[in-house]
Design a protein that fits this description.
This protein is α/β, with parallel strands linked by helices. The chain has a single domain, classed as Rossmann fold. It is 35% helix and 20% strand. The protein has 9 helices and 10 strands. Helix 3 (52-58) crosses helix 4. The longest helix has 13 residues, at 159-171. The chain is globular, with a radius of gyration of 16 Å. 47% of the residues are buried. The mean pLDDT is 96.
């Protein structure tokens, strides 16, 4: 059993709480504009509704699952970079925001979204995961078995964190496949406009796709 502090109680964060609670993990949920939403999610999962600072302090693994524009506020509420030092942080966010008077994929100046967030708490060990598929699809696909089991891509620069991520992804009902490090030439393929983003993959096809793409810059032609 792992103590998991989830910062962000929206659709993806709520899914992760439910998936991992079913596998027996100790779940804490935090950071919602509605205390009632947190209380319902805690009741659904048998977990606890806590403050972001409590989630960061007590969790062995921290999940950041908020809109891109709320990342800084979520980290501040958790206690800042120091509060995440030594923790494994799973980042589910995607770089969507205001673009040319509308809403779209932000240009991060050649960096991956994962790199940008990891730099905000450099003494944490960051993993990018649970970001490629919609919340609704994740909820319906979790727990499939055999050749229909859905892949959940992840990326990290840490072997230890990779092991933890793979265990939690399996416990959530998916097949983990690593895309590489947090560098854009690796993780960028699982971020918006990357070839792995927004698509359903199964194990063999996922392995082949990663082998083909890893170490190359994303073409930018995948789903936004």
């Amino acid at each position: 059993m792992t103590r998991i502090g989830i910062i962000g109680a929206g659709h993806i964060g709520g899914n992760i709480a439910r998936f991992l609670a079913r596998s027996g993990h100790d779940i804490m949920v935090s950071f919602s504009r509605s205390p009632a939403t947190l209380d319902r999610l805690a009741a659904d999962t048998g977990g606890r509704a806590v403050s972001p600072a409590e989630a960061a302090a007590q969790g062995e693994v921290i999940v950041i699952s908020v809109p891109w524009t709320a990342v800084d506020a979520a980290l501040a509420a958790a206690g800042g970079a120091d509060a995440l030092a030594g923790k494994i942080v799973i980042d589910t966010t995607n770089q969507f925001g205001p673009v040319a008077g509308g809403f779209g994929v932000l240009d991060l100046g050649g960096k991956s979204a994962a790199e940008v967030n990891a730099a905000k708490a450099p003494r944490a060990t960051w993993v990018k995961a649970f970001n490629t598929l919609t919340a609704g699809f994740q909820a319906s696909a979790s727990g499939r078995t055999g050749p229909d089991r859905v892949v959940m891509f992840y990326a990290t620069g840490s072997g230890q964190a990779a092991g933890t991520a793979e265990t939690l992804i399996r416990d959530a009902g998916f097949d983990p496949v690593a895309t590489g490090t947090l560098a854009r030439a690796d993780v960028g393929h699982q971020e918006p406009k990357g070839d792995l983003y927004g698509e359903e993959f199964h194990h063999d096809d996922a392995i082949a796709a990663v082998r083909r793409l890893r170490g190359t810059l994303p073409a930018g032609t995948g789903r936004p």
